[in-house]
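Subject: complex prediction, re-run

Hi both,

The earlier run crashed halfway through, so I resubmitted it with identical inputs.
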Amino acid sequence: MPIFYHPDITSGIVSLDAEESRHCVKVLRLREGDSVSVADGRGTLCRCRIVSADARECVVEAVETEEHYRQRPFRLHLAVAPTKNMARIEWLVEKAVEIGVDEFTPVICQHSERGVLKTDRLEKIAISAMKQSLRASLPVIHGATSLSDLLSSNLPQQRLVCYCEGNQRQSLHQVYARGHDAVVLIGPEGDFAPSEIAHAMEAGFVPVTLGDTRLRTETAALYALSALNFINE
Amino acid sequence: MPIFYHPDITSGIVSLDAEESRHCVKVLRLREGDSVSVADGRGTLCRCRIVSADARECVVEAVETEEHYRQRPFRLHLAVAPTKNMARIEWLVEKAVEIGVDEFTPVICQHSERGVLKTDRLEKIAISAMKQSLRASLPVIHGATSLSDLLSSNLPQQRLVCYCEGNQRQSLHQVYARGHDAVVLIGPEGDFAPSEIAHAMEAGFVPVTLGDTRLRTETAALYALSALNFINE
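This time it finished cleanly. Structure:
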């Protein structure tokens, strides 16, 4: 049973967009009166009835509403220095949404390979990954943010920064307390500058290691996110 | 300090291939007498001296040999039904090598979207991921294998199959014993056929769940591999 997306489905009657209408009517061959599930991207899933099975504009009506659908009791915020190669960021967003992320911030660091980032494509990727993984919530995707702006923003108590240097680093096993909100900060390929790590630690971030191999930025981000979700499994 | 690759470096004096020679001499501007590290892909890392800094054919001589470089005390075998989209398999191999995998088998199942698979490109991707992540071993990459051939092959005692259905599934937390060799079997988008799961269970595979969301094949594979590596961290 596929999940469709409409931000205003809770208002009652909506038209699915052209692509989803086509998928619903042409591909799945659903008809008037058939049931579909529509997520609003904010955690609510509606069981809907198809009012008009139009392949260009399929109209659906919410019949039953389930709030906090598959909502986890914790929130994970991934803050990552965007890679030069945009495909790697897009891939990361797709996988992060499937595995479970609530907030995503591209962080611009001293060694960043990219200073600007269009998030509209990331939003689209997040929507299809949300549907693919049968979720009803989209992560908040922030625009490119400087490290100091991130550090001075409102962050959860559990603050982890993945850092390749230094001997005071601990494992996520030691640092993360199951069930708690957390933010994980992942640096650029060139790693953080020492002053950036110092700044992050002043802001309450604990340096963690992901093992002794060198992971690409997007791999480190996905590995850390997988570990946090796994601890909460 | 980058790592280069040559399967015969332990024999003493070898020529790096054209691409690595160019990288070594043109990009890194290394000269005769400079040191480089060369991995043989079977766990041995050699500290080498550049004998001839030729940008087309850089000749290096092994000076010091370290066997079992960063070798882990356990082996992880990922057996995955290949996706229709080859880019997703290539991505999976890159990430799996970075995170840590010792054996990779594309498994052909009843609901597989792909029955054949060229592994030569996967080998290349594994080599560059090995160098990227500063490892000295390449995973064994098998050709496309039928599920029954896999099940009748020589597998580690810890056998896990990720399955979307069934209520007898356990979490990896409950099933996997830290430090042990393991094989993880991941099915196609259409999941395993019930008869395939039955066959796998007869062969000693324990059904595990990766949570209640639906993960793409390559995402499930990477999440499971991350969890097993994290348990061993």
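The helical segments of chain B are 18-27, 86-99, 120-132, 147-151, 172-175, 194-202, 217-231.

- K.
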